[in-house]
Amino acid sequence: MFFLKKRKRIIIFTALFLLFLGSFLFVQARELELNYPQIGNFSLTEDSIDLPAFIKYIFNFSIILIGIIAFGGLVFSGFLYLTSSGDPAQIKKAKDGIIASILGLLLLLGSYLVLEKINPELLKLEKEDLETIGIAILDDLKLPDDITGTWIELPVETRIVGVKGEEYGIFEEKRLERIRQNAEDTAEEAELVNETSKSLASLAGECNCNHGTNGPPCSVPICTGDCKTKENNDGSEECIDTCQGLCCTSDPCCDVRNEIDKEKAKNRKSSDNLQSLKEDLFNEKIDLEIEIEKLKRTLEIMREDCPLSLTMGRDNYISLKDYYEHNEEEAKEMRYWDEVKKLIPMSYADFYCSVGGSRSGYFPNDIDVPSQNEIETSLESYGEYLKITPHENTISCQKTIPFGEIVDEGLKIANKLLKKMFNQDDDIKKAGMIQLQSKLIEKIDKLHLSINDCLSSHCTPVCECGSNCNGCEASHCAGGNPCPMGEINRLKKEITDIYEEIEERKDEIFKIIDIDIPTYLEGDFKTLTIWIHNCIADSEEIESGWILTNCERATGCIGPDGEMIENTASTQGGSFQIPALCKCSNIDECKKNFPTLKDKKVCSVIENCTEFNFFCCRTKLAE
Questions:
Q1: C-beta of residue 379 within 8 angstroms of C-beta of residue 556
Q2: By CB distance 3.0 to 4.6 Å, which of 247, 414, 492, 584 could disulfide with 201?
Q3: Cα atoms in the 13 Å half-sphere on the side-chain side of 606
Q4: Which of 38-42, 159-163, 403-407 has the lowest mean pLDDT?
């Protein structure tokens, strides 16, 4: 065993020594001073010495050397076995040596075969010449031959008005019809419930513990005890009375039970219908909220992702697209909202933002925002310039287009409608239609439970002994009306109150849908869209050169009232604040054309809605 361990150490030491020797020779990079013997078909010459060749030579040499050592160990161990003369220790030593030698040879052969089978290239150590890669240097930079432009649709008017036959649009016609019909159906069901509940309360009032017009009394007493005659010592008889009432059975409302069941069946049907109406209206509420949020998201894109200064109206886009096509260039649009497959025909308040193509818009994100002092100084200088040179070129903004404030008013109406549909409040005078539907369903259930409590167990059984004391006999049930009429009448009144609130909420929803929304769409909103269109497209009525300018870019221009549009706000947090003169309530011309905005001081839904206001401006050339 010691011989085996020693032999292993010798083999390992020899292999490490040969590897170290090869590395040393490679690092020294000296010319060969010896003639290396040929190993197999491979030999080293002065012309073929390099690192791969030297390693391959050492590898082949090591394989042969290790094989010789293993074979020598096998021969030596065989010799020991033959000369052991029956000595057990020598025989064991010889066997161990033979086994170790055979295992060494198998390990050597196996490792070579494994490398050959897994990846033969591991045994082929050859130097590969690296391919030289040329670097092409462009003489000049050429623009693409095909000029393209890509714009993303930002539907505002389409998102507000909706397209007929489509499911999107805040004030889409079918959506409003469904909400209106839901309110009408709810009011009809509530009226029926109110009448049925009054009838149930009246029928419950007819229930009686000792009442039965079509036969025996509705309630029958159950008696216990007995009546027995006892003879006294003087020969007289005495009636021993232990007779008493146990309970009353049967139905104290037996005379009106059929009518009660019919009215309750009507109420249950109304309750099911109200539940269905509530679910439908809740879904309409969710869809309407989603539409509002999508419109607000579109406006955020206009303000943040695609600054208002780069936003293009639909008329501008159509003109630009015609220009591209005329010059055999490509202009295409993309949808931001997949469900908006088409815009309203002839919509003027839908916008586009350049997002790509070989000719696309660019807006630096690292632009330095001027300080308040710099802005005020610049505006003062520009104002002095206008006074001194009144006939030089100036930008005149003669019309205000309060786009942001008008859209905010539309969302205010939409939120008002939402509040009439859904407003969580315990006070029914403030609750929305959905809450009123839930409350009415709840009161129906409670009323039915109270009616079900008209039980004979609330009656008092009366039992008496007969005139001859010949037994305990049932007389009648006392107690009058067994129903909790106080609770029933209270629930009846609550149902009436809810019904009246549902009628009022229906009228409010009708007013919003039938009056407020059409007035808004046909009034201020329509005027807004026409003015956006006229500012760009109506060249017959307005001189060419007009542009749609947002409030920020209009700062320093001449406003509709003949005064320079100044920035009266400040820069906060690195963002430009909109001047107060962009508010419609601060512009006489705007208040005249949009009277509904004359008292509007704050934005109701859209944060800083005046940022979305526009001016219709043109450059006034020197005379």
A1: yes
A2: 492
A3: 27
A4: 38-42
CA atoms of 313 and 549, how far apart (whole Å)? 11
pLDDT of residue 213: 58
Provide CB contacts within 8 A for 34, sequence distance 6+: none
Rounded CA separation 28/21 (Å): 11
Q: Is the pLDDT confidence value at 620 over 80?
A: no
Instruction: Specify the amino acid at residue 321.
Output: K
Per DSSP, what are the bridge partners of residue 369? none
Quick check: 459 and 482 in contact, CB under 8 A? Answer: yes
Task: Identify the CA nearest to 159 among candidates 295, 287, 285, 286.
Answer: 295
Q: Kindly state the tokens that stand for 351.
A: 């916008």
Q: Are 561 and 587 in contact (CB under 8 A)?
A: yes
The DSSP letter of residue 122 is: G
Please identify which residue in the block is written with the tokens 């036969």: 215
Tokens of residue 273, six digits? 């219908």
Length of the chain in terms of residues written: 623
Strands 330-335 and 148-154, by their bridges, are parallel
Q: With the C-alpha atoms ordered 495, 499, 501, 502, is the resulting torsion angle positive or negative?
A: positive
CB proximity list for 179: less than 8 A, separation 6 or greater: 281, 284, 417, 421, 509, 513
Q: Which H helix or E strand runs over 615?
A: strand 614-620
CA distance 179 to 167: 14
Distance in angstroms (rounded) separating the CA atoms of residues 126 and 74: 35
600-605 LR contacts (CB < 8 Å, sep 24+):
600/405, 600/409, 603/404, 603/405, 603/408, 604/408, 604/409, 604/411, 604/412, 604/415, 605/292, 605/296, 605/408, 605/411, 605/412, 605/415
Phi, psi of 17 (to 5 degrees): -65, -40
What does the block give as tokens for 478? 């006392």
Per DSSP, the three-state class of 621 is: coil
Distance CA 190, CA 180 (A): 15
Please state, in angstroms and rounded to a whole number, the distance separating the CA atoms of residues 168 and 160.
Answer: 9
If you average pLDDT over each of 32-41, 235-244, 327-336, 509-518, which comes out highest? 509-518
Where residue 225 falls (left for φ over 0; alpha for ψ -120 to 50; beta otherwise) is left
Q: Tell me if 321 sits within 8 A of 328, measured CB to CB.
A: no
Where do the domains of the chain lie? 2-123, 151-620
Tokens representing residue 345 in the block:
């025909």
